[in-house]
Design a protein that fits this description.
With about 725 residues, the protein is an alpha+beta fold. The protein has 18 helices and 23 strands.
Length: about 725
């Protein structure tokens, strides 16, 4: 006799998934909504007619509806998406209600400027968040915490008009794969997706969680695409010191389900109840004590939501690695909340069990440093729950968790004592200096003599873990003009991983000197503001270029061939016979002395090696001419060979006859006012902001770049992947 999960029904579903659909359908339908024009329309606000269906959506937290951006853009090609009002019709028990909602955010942000034409496929992730403008009582779905969907049977829901009136219906299919680097999920052709279903939820029937948002159907009929709900993590990051929209919504989501689970005011099934009634998965190695029960999982998510959010994505990843026993999945999108960390702990290696890994993680979170003061008792309540939950598990695990908690408390107290003299929740850096944590590394290599470039985006762990690199993405054969678009998504992902609530992470751009004029600081990735205004941006010499150039002897041919055969990364401070280490230490402490390297009195010059090596250690060589032309190109190599780790460059203004005197004059004042080099990356960010804001006193700073060869941040030694032969 076939088991419950394996028996196949005539409609293509197993008996297990049919039972799961029966259990989940009422919950999903109660949270799914119809999206249409605002009640009464734009011209007659007193009318209660809703008009035709634009698409569907679903409540993910109290007052928040998730749908597709193309749904809220329906019929409004000239209407701005963000801020637009829409109508939301939903069910509340046996009643139907209609309210007005406002679009708070769309993804990707550039949809506002680059909206596709009618009937064209909108760019991924094609999501919109709508905030309901009136307090209403409604149901919410349960969102997955997994970064990757399981390719199993799912149900999808949305608004249809099969019987002539709009209603929320559900159908089933299987997931067939992913697309768009994991941003989209492919749906099988078991049934048809109708136009009004766009924006509706896709539910994993085995686990009872929403994994996607219906996006498009195939032109030939059945099947289509859905957007992974994990793409919500790509919502714009908050300003420093604020909690972002994603974290606020996920906190509200978890607290909603936690409150529903604890409430005994009615006997309606909750998502937690249904999770406990779903048919068991065949061959689950973590069944029984190996997994948390649905009630335990809901409670854990609720207790984590009571805590202040983590300071950065890297904090979450570090705790996950400690609990899991191996580095978590590095693929995007980055985990931003404590809940996201739980999603990286499913199916841990070595058969240790999910429950054990999640309890270790929760223990570490209970003694973590939070981004803001914790609500009194919230961390202790989490630990009390961990200890009580562990009572049903193995005795050695209970002892391990207790010892882990004691070590964590002692370490947290040690950190707090070490931070005496500065704010407990302040930055771990000297005033005006760089953050000490992870940075984003962008590497770009010329592709031989062709006018195309290979690139790689990575995360550098920072001085505390010098040399540790986590890849984000890479690509080949991009044109210079195409680099900003090719790098927009990878850079945004890198920033999500590294930014903290205290500071935007450093962006390190490792390119050959002739590419020092690459206007990375002027690129717009997120937020509509240039990168150099949002965060410190510095230039680095790439791996394997040490010693390649010599003053007066470097050519573009020797500099553009990429890494050397061994790919070895040598820092000037590591080479014998140079004063690079002394120069770096001296210039960091200041005071600073500027020296024109590639011009004298406004005329170009090539600096002599003897002259460069004889300058004081606190000198900052300054270049005012195009980096890809002589004598500046040779000078950039020469100052590096002479051991200078802090150098200033500039993209010359468009006017060829413009004097460089204002640049040198303004820079001299800036360096004198800075006093020491360690504050220059942040001061250059401020300068770019002033120039971007049209400050007349900062016009001279346009195009200024800072070469920053920090020996505590070594670059990776691997060569880039080359294109197809």
């Amino acid at each position: 006799m076939p088991n419950e999960r394996g028996a196949r029904m005539t409609d293509g579903r197993t008996t297990g998934s049919a039972r799961a659909f029966e259990l989940l359908e009422p919950l999903v339908q109660a949270a799914t909504v119809r999206v249409h024009a605002p009640p009464g329309g734009y011209e007659n606000p007193r009318s209660h007619r809703t008009g035709p269906t634009w698409g569907s959506g679903f409540f993910i937290a109290p007052g928040w509806v998730l749908t597709c951006a193309h749904v809220v853009g329906e019929g409004g090609a000239a209407v701005r998406l963000t801020g637009r009002e829409v109508g939301i019709t939903f069910s509340a028990g046996s009643l139907t209600g209609t309210v007005t909602g406002r679009v708070e955010c769309v993804l990707p942000e550039r949809l506002e400027e680059r909206r596709p034409g009618r009937h064209a496929l909108w760019d991924l992730p094609d999501l919109a968040l709508v905030r309901v403008l009136a307090p209403v009582s409604h149901a919410c779905v349960w969102l997955t915490d997994r970064s990757r969907p399981r390719f199993d049977e799912v149900a999808y829901f949305g608004c249809t008009e099969d019987l002539g009136t709009p209603e929320i219906t559900g159908r089933t299919t299987r997931l067939r794969g992913t697309a768009g680097n994991g941003a989209a999920i492919r749906l099988g052709d078991d049934d048809e997706i109708e136009p009004g279903m766009s924006g509706g939820p896709v539910v994993d029937l085995a686990r009872g969680e929403v994994v996607g948002v219906l996006k498009a159907r195939r032109q030939t009929g059945g099947g289509g695409l859905a957007v992974s709900v994990v793409q919500l993590r790509t919502l714009p990051m908050a300003a420093r010191g604020q909690v972002g929209l994603y974290r606020r919504i996920m906190q509200a989501h978890d607290l909603y389900h936690y409150d529903q689970h604890l409430s005994d005011l009615d006997n309606r099934r909750t998502w937690t109840d249904v999770h406990g009634e779903l048919p068991p998965e065949e061959g689950d190695p973590y069944a029984g004590r190996g997994r948390l029960t649905p009630g335990e999982r809901t409670t854990l998510c609720g207790l984590l939501a009571e805590l202040p959010p983590p300071g950065s994505s890297e904090v979450v990843r570090a705790l996950v690695e400690a609990a899991r026993g191996e580095e978590p999945d590095p693929l995007p999108p980055a985990p931003l909340s404590w809940r996201d960390g739980l999603g990286l702990l499913h199916d841990p290696p070595g058969g240790t069990g999910e429950a054990a890994a999640m309890l270790r993680y929760a223990t570490d979170v209970s003694v973590a440093d939070y981004r803001e003061p914790v609500t009194p008792g919230a961390d202790e309540e989490l630990w009390d729950w961990v200890r009580a939950t562990a009572e049903r598990l193995w005795r050695p695990l209970r002892r391990e968790l207790g010892e882990r908690h004691e070590r964590g408390l002692a370490e947290r107290e040690r950190r707090r004592r070490a931070s005496a003299g500065r704010a407990v929740h302040g930055t771990a850096r000297r005033a005006g200096g760089l953050p000490s944590g992870a940075s984003v590394l962008l590497e770009v290599w010329a592709h031989g003599w062709e006018d195309v470039y290979d690139w790689r985006v990575s995360v550098l762990a920072g001085p505390a873990h010098a040399g540790r690199v986590t890849p984000v993405d890479s690509g080949v054969r991009a044109t210079l003009a195409g680099l900003p678009e090719a790098l927009r998504v990878p850079l945004a992902e890198g920033f999500r991983r590294c930014d903290t609530h205290e500071a935007a992470a450093l962006l390190e751009v490792a390119v050959a000197p002739e590419l020092f004029g690459l206007a990375v600081d002027a690129w717009v990735v997120v937020g509509g503001v240039p990168l150099g205004v949002q965060r410190p941006v510095v230039l680095r010499h790439p791996a394997g270029t040490a010693g390649v150039g010599r003053a007066g002897g470097t050519t573009a041919a020797t500099a553009t061939t990429g890494p050397n055969p061994g790919g070895a990364r040598e820092h000037p401070a590591d080479r014998e016979g140079t004063d690079a280490a002394a120069r770096w230490a001296r210039v960091q402490a200041g005071p600073l002395q500027d020296e024109r390297a590639d011009c004298a009195g406004g005329r170009p010059r090539s600096p002599a090696t003897e002259w460069l090596t004889g300058l004081p250690d606190n000198t900052v060589p300054v270049h005012c001419r195009a980096a890809d032309q002589e004598p500046t190109l040779g000078s950039l190599h020469a100052v590096r060979d002479a051991g200078y780790g802090v150098v200033v460059t500039r993209r010359p203004p468009p006017e060829p006859g413009a004097s460089c005197a204002p640049f040198h004059r303004g820079l001299r004042e800036e360096l004198a006012d800075a006093g020491r080099a360690e504050v220059l990356p942040v001061r250059f960010q401020t300068l770019r902001g002033r120039a971007y804001g049209a400050d007349p006193d900062a016009y001279w700073a346009a195009g200024a770049g800072l070469v920053w060869e920090d020996p505590t941040r070594p670059l990776p030694e691997e060569e880039p992947l080359q294109g197809d032969l």
